[in-house]
Amino acid sequence: MNIYKKVVVPLDGSPLAEVALPYAEEVAGKMGSEIVLLTVLSSEEPEEYQNHQKYSSEMVDTTRRQVEKYLEDTGDKATKVGSATRVGNPAEGILDYVDKGQMCLIVMATHGRSGVGRWAVGSIADKVVRATIRQPLLLIRAKGTHPDVRAKRILKKALIPLDGSPESEAVIPYLSEVAQSLHMELTLLRVITKNNGNFAGADAYLQGWCRKFKEKGITTGYEVRVGSPAEQIIDLADELASDMVAMSTRGQTAVNLWSLGSVAQKVLLGGNTPLLLIKA
User: Fold this and answer.
1) CATH 3.40.50.620 fits 157-279, yes or no
2) Where are the alpha helices (DSSP H) in 131-253?
3) What is the pTM (predicted TM-score) of this model?
4) What is the CATH class of 6-141?
């Protein structure tokens, strides 16, 4: 069953937000998902609404044309592309839309902060990341990305960090479905510390998951590394030129936030690769 029946792309009229579109188009086109371009208006003033309608219509037409190139590969006749509008606070509008609907994949852009070795997620994306929602979220690093250049395949390789816990493995069903549909090549990573250098156990653990992925027809390899988990994840993603890092983050029931955890947060802030986050 397709987990991603709907792919939601928040847009604000800027080229920065539009860098998420090629990723959404590829996922939706290959998986037969509906695409919804979501805009949150600051007011219901006639002029703002009219400008939004014009922009939204143009973006829907452009996105529909881009998705069509994937339909030739899948044999599907059409993928629905539509728009939705909310009024008010941007982050609250996004969360209101995605939390009340069916399971969906949120694909949104974030921007880099020059001079600092971290992601500046931005107030809107940051609130969506940290909100208590059950929807998977794919964050696209906008720096150096151009929305007008759409390669037919931009999601070819993914890196999955696993630490042996059920929480880290929560990402697997979500990525497996994407990997099968997009014919992605996966690399599993287990990072062990110098004080816990159980290479044999890490090898056996990752080999077991490789077998399970290969049974589904997914090309999968693995690596075991020693050091800081976040640093090793970022370094390996860069070395492999991964198109995505996919990892889970644990929920925190006492506070109305995602508890990203030190590893996921460091990868979010310091990485150079699109990041798929799944709430465990």
Assistant:
1) yes
2) 166-169, 172-182, 199-215, 229-239
3) 0.86
4) alpha beta
193-224 tens-digit pLDDT: 877 667 788 999 999 999 999 999 999 999 99
Buried b (16+ CB within 10 A) or exposed e, 98-125: beeeeebbbbbbbbeeeeeeebebbebb
Rounded Cα distance, 59 and 53, in Å: 10
For the chain, the 3-state helix, strand and coil shares in percent, each to the nearest 5, are 40, 25, 30
Distance CA(154)–CA(198), nearest Å, equals 35
List the structure tokens of 16.
């920065």
Which two structure tokens, joined as six digits, stand for 240? 């492999």
Asked, colleague to colleague, whether 6-141 and 157-279 share their fold, the answer is yes
Tens of pLDDT along 126-168?
777 777 567 899 999 876 555 555 666 899 999 999 988 888 9
**Can you spell out the DSSP letters for 104-158?**
EEEEEEEEE-TTSSSEE--HHHHHHHHS---S-EEEEE-TT--TT---S----EE
CB-CB neighbours of 206 under 10 Å: 22
Q: Looking at residue 152, what DSSP letter applies?
A: S
Look-up: residue for tokens 């014919």?
183
Half-sphere exposure of 32 (CA within 13 A, CB side): 10
**One-letter identity of residue 121:** V
**Token pair in block for residue 66:** 């881009």
- Asked whether the beta carbons of 16 and 111 are under 8 A apart, the reply is yes
Taking the C-alpha atoms of residue 10 and residue 84, their distance in angstroms, rounded to an integer, is 9
Domain segments of the chain as ranges? 6-141, 157-279
Interstrand relation of 257-259 and 244-252 (parallel, antiparallel or unpaired): antiparallel
